[in-house]
Inverse folding.
């Protein structure tokens, strides 16, 4: 029998790792919601964020937390470039071209990084990695706790950005009705650049946070992309805040279920859940009807 | 059925077909004589992926269901052939076909839930199904778990029964025969009423339904034949490489995506497109993998990067594939149904 304190511990660590899943999911949901494009390479932009942090730390000794803006800006720039060079051309193309184009990005980024950085697992050793807080039976690792608060901060900042700034309102307008937004004088093309840039940038922040307490690898994006898809499906497509909540729910579910079932079966359950959700309620928990 | 084949082989088509067949039949002999194992192996893989890409294209090109999960059928076919041979001593001559049938049944079983999904939902779900199969086979002891299964070592006089020959040369003829069989089944199928039903479903499922076509039923027909021949491709893999493990045969990239790229590169709205695509794409990928990545393991991943570049280039520059592009430029006679190339 699994003790209650184990469960409490699992819930807490699930919330902490879930907040990272949330960031990756939010990026995917943003791009999906605004452009109706599924970015299969989302997890790989996250990996790029993690590697920006790794190299900044290894080459210049930049603390991983200070490299959050750096990793966001680098992937933001790459995202805008991707949007201009690739996504723009397939926006009105058949569905199969959209899927294959972003899938091609996945292959190029993931395996390009593998060829460039070598197929090795890397790890950042921050001085505070082993600082652990204990509250009764619950123990918290400092980097994970920091990751949670940074993730929350990013989510709140993003919320404020969407609600209060001109660009944020314009982004939401474009997502609701592209043509109407265009007629209101919004530069839709530019909004799409910004949307893709921010979408991959937010995921990259998730990568940076993960790099502080988990090993990183060029192929790590595969796992997080899967999680991101589950998060987005669960939270409802295009619903950025549904994605944040469902990221945490998925994190908790994952770490609690790890107490009861073997790790390999755990992933089978995750995939089955994914298929079950899209079969039963493709609009997700917090989603609205699809256009 | 014969009438369709006669039509297909009339005029210029028949001449091309005869020339290509003759080249294919002579090529392995030349490779063998000149001792070119790399070329022979590449040709075998081209044929294997031709079989599977054509099967895949029955679902994508004709029916409009983009599958990233054909590794499931490939793996099931490979494992069935292996298990029959290893545990029951059944010759692969039968095992390959049984493997195809089992894969087809798996396809039908998967089709029931999956065909309730449309467009990108279907594609996403097929990825998930592929991963589920990989994970199940990893933890399933009967099929060897993560270590996989290896063909029995057999005495010299039984090599015909167990189909164990050195190199790829003999297997090329096996793959050619199976590709020929597939053409004999697929061509009449897509030229028949069913083929046009499938295309109607691809163009507009609701409209097809309003005309009295049951989309689910015909998608299942397409799934059956698609999974059947993909499973047969898996059987060829088993006899040639004599070793199956879940990481290799259920791999998303090196099986499912390979098939997809071969199909799309050749042209999904063309009957022979996937074969052309395989013969262009597989040698490039194999060359990079064998001559660059194997020699410089530090650059592991480069071969997949090249796949990505190719896939991106087709998606952006020629979404209609090689055959579609040739038609557009006027090098090939337009087919009757080519009006819909490049449309949703």
């Amino acid at each position: 029998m699994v003790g209650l304190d184990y469960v409490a511990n699992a819930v807490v660590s699930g919330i902490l790792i879930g907040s990272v899943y949330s960031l990756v999911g939010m990026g995917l949901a943003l791009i999906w919601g605004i452009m109706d494009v599924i970015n299969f390479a989302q997890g790989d932009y996250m990996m790029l964020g993690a590697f920006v942090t790794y190299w900044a730390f290894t080459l210049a000794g930049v603390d991983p937390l200070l490299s959050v803006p750096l990793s966001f800006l680098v992937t933001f720039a790459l995202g805008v470039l991707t949007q201009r060079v690739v996504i723009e051309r397939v926006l009105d193309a058949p569905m199969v071209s959209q899927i294959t184009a972003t899938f091609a990005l996945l292959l190029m980024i993931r395996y390009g990084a593998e060829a460039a950085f070598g197929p090795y697992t890397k790890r950042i050793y921050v001085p505070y990695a082993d600082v652990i807080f204990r509250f009764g039976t619950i123990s918290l690792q400092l980097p994970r706790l920091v990751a949670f608060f940074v993730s929350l901060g990013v989510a709140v900042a993003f919320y404020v950005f969407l609600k209060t700034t001109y660009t944020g309102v314009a982004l939401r307008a474009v997502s609701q009705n592209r043509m109407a937004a265009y007629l209101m004088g919004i530069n839709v093309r530019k909004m799409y650049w910004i949307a893709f840039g921010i979408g991959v940038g937010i995921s990259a922040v998730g990568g940076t946070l993960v790099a502080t307490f988990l090993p990183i690898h060029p192929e790590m994006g595969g796992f997080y992309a899967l999680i991101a898809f589950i998060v987005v499906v669960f939270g409802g497509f295009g619903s950025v805040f549904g994605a944040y909540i469902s990221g945490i729910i998925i994190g908790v579910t994952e770490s609690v279920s790890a107490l009861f079932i073997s790790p390999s079966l755990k992933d089978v359950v995750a995939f089955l859940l994914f298929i079950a959700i899209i079969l039963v309620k493709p609009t997700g928990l917090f989603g609205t009807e699809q256009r | 059925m014969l009438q369709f084949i006669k039509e297909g082989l009339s005029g210029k088509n028949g001449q091309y077909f005869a020339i290509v067949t003759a080249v294919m039949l002579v090529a392995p002999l030349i490779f063998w004589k000149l001792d070119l194992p790399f070329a022979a192996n590449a040709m075998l893989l081209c044929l294997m992926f031709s079989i599977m890409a054509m099967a895949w294209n029955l679902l994508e090109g004709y029916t409009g269901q983009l599958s990233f999960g054909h590794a499931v059928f490939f793996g099931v076919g490979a494992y069935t052939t292996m298990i029959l041979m290893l545990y029951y001593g059944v010759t692969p001559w039968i095992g390959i076909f049984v493997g195809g049938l089992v894969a087809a049944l798996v396809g039908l079983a998967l089709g029931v839930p999956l065909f309730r999904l449309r467009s990108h939902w279907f594609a996403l779900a097929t990825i998930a199904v592929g991963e589920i199969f990989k994970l199940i086979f990893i933890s399933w002891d009967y099929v060897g778990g993560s270590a996989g299964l290896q063909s029995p070592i057999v005495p010299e006089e039984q090599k015909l029964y167990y189909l164990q020959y050195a190199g790829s040369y003999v297997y090329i003829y096996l793959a050619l025969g199976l590709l020929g069989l597939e053409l004999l089944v697929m061509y009449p199928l897509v030229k028949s009423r069913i083929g046009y039903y499938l295309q109607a479903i691809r163009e507009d499922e609701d409209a097809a339904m309003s005309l009295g076509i049951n989309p689910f039923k015909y998608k299942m027909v397409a799934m059956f034949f698609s999974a059947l021949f993909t499973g047969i491709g898996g059987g060829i893999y088993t006899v040639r490489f004599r070793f199956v493990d879940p990481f290799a045969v259920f791999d998303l990239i090196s099986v499912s995506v390979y098939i997809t790229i071969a199909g799309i590169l050749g042209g999904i709205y063309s009957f022979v497109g996937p074969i052309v695509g395989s013969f262009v794409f597989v040698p490039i990928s194999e060359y990079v993998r064998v001559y660059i990545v194997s020699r410089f393991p530090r650059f592991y991943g480069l071969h997949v990067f090249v796949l990505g570049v190719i896939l991106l280039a087709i998606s952006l520059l020629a979404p209609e594939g090689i055959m579609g592009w040739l038609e557009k430029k006027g090098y090939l006679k337009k087919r009757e149904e080519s009006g819909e190339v490049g449309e949703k």
